[in-house]
């Protein structure tokens, strides 16, 4: 290898020669590095440099702000290390060059670079490509599942929520990842007794219209939450739809059987309650019958005080006025009858 240079990549596109040894760990993707560097062309022209130790250049590995060769080289360096780099166009500015830095097309580059220090850190979301975001979502889902298995549902929920924020792919693969996270959020909400949220997340998974297996899980999760808040008709509809997807799924069959039994018992109880209410209503109406009878009896007593043979028309006969009430004299043409009434009423 010429002049102590070693290949950092198989095709020889990035070579490094150590000028000053460093120590400690080496940075990785996402690490925030503070560096000093100077870049020259083959003729010795300096096209770029940053050599102020008081205010070093800050560079995050993997953000593609600088050339690819920088990322490769820095991941091979230790803190304090100074090195010389030889970088071909494929890992530099390519066949276009850089007109702002006066780098011609297909230029080979030479750098002197020093790694002052670095901090571990992941790339910010806005710095990631769509594919990197997808991978980050998968990584977070794995972490969330680990927490879920430890029954740490609250923290698992938080991680799944963060993972969902990284899902930007609209491909089939991207939508399936979103649906997976929505389903995980649904079951976490269920475990945290947030049943309305559990239903909402399951609905969102269904809206993505992914594969049948995820649709089956979403319907099942939604049904379980409906059962918890006694929305049994909705639960039964979900389970029946799930059964249309997989008629042999034992979990769905078991839950559907339970819901049917609960609905049957509920209807029987309602029927019993209505029957009791109806009977009570009849009983309450009979309570007033003694009063009606009492009134009728009172009327009967009143009538018994009157002469049944009395002619009611007598009440309409003219009554004597104050002028002649004292002038009336007993009739004397019926003395025989008067005598007979006196004899009949006399004691024997």
TrEMBL record:
Enumerate the InterPro entries for this protein: FKBP4/5/8-like (IPR050754), PPIase_dom_sf (IPR046357), PPIase_FKBP_dom (IPR001179), TPR-like_helical_dom_sf (IPR011990), TPR_rpt (IPR019734)
Q: Name one Pfam family in it.
A: FKBP_C
Q: Please list the reactions this protein catalyses.
A: [protein]-peptidylproline (omega=180) = [protein]-peptidylproline (omega=0)
Q: What class of enzyme is it?
A: isomerase
Write down the EC number. 5.2.1.8
State whether keyword Nucleus applies. Answer: no
Q: Which UniProt keywords apply?
A: Isomerase, Repeat, Rotamase, TPR repeat
The UniProt entry, under Gene3D superfamilies, shows: 3.10.50.40, Tetratricopeptide repeat domain (1.25.40.10)
Q: Which domain of life is it from?
A: Eukaryota
**Compositional bias per record (Basic and acidic residues), positions renumbered to this chain:** 316-348
| One Gene Ontology term of the molecular function aspect | peptidyl-prolyl cis-trans isomerase activity
The UniProt record lists the PPIase FKBP-type domain at: 30-119
In residue numbers, the region (Disordered) covers 304-348
Alphabetical list of PANTHER family matching this protein: PEPTIDYLPROLYL ISOMERASE
The name this protein goes by in its record: peptidylprolyl isomerase
């Amino acid at each position: 290898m010429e002049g102590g240079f070693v290949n950092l990549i198989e095709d020889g596109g990035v070579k490094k020669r150590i000028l000053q040894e460093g120590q400690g760990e080496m940075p990785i993707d996402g690490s925030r590095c503070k560096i000093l560097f100077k870049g020259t062309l083959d003729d010795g022209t300096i096209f770029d440099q940053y050599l102020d130790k008081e205010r070093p250049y800050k560079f995050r590995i993997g953000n593609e702000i600088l050339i690819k060769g920088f990322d490769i080289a820095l991941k091979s360096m230790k803190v304090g290390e100074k090195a010389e780099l030889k970088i071909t166009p494929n890992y530099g500015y390519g066949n276009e060059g850089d007109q702002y830095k006066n780098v011609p097309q297909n230029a080979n580059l030479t750098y002197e670079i020093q790694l002052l220090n670095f901090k571990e850190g992941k790339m910010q979301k806005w710095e990631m490509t769509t594919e990197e975001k997808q991978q980050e979502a998968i990584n977070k889902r794995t972490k969330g599942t680990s927490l879920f298995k430890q029954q740490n549902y609250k923290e698992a929920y938080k991680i799944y929520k963060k993972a969902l924020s990284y899902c930007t792919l609209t491909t089939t693969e991207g939508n399936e990842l979103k649906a997976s996270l929505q389903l995980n959020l649904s079951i976490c909400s269920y475990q945290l007794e947030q049943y309305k949220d559990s239903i909402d997340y399951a609905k969102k998974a269904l809206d993505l219209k992914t594969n049948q297996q995820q649709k089956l899980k979403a319907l099942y999760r939604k049904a379980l939450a409906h059962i918890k808040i006694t929305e049994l008709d909705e639960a039964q509809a979900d389970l029946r739809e799930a059964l249309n997807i997989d008629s042999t799924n034992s979990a769905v069959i078991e839950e559907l059987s339970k819901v049917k039994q609960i609905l049957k018992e509920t209807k029987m109880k309602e029927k019993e309650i209505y029957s009791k209410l109806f009977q009570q209503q009849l009983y309450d109406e009979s309570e007033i019958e003694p009063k009606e009878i009492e009134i009728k009896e009172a009327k009967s007593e009143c009538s018994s005080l009157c002469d049944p043979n009395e002619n009611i028309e007598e009440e309409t006969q003219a009554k004597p006025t104050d002028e002649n009430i004292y002038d009336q004299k007993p009739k004397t043409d019926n003395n025989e009858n008067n005598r007979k009434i006196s004899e009949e009423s006399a004691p024997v």
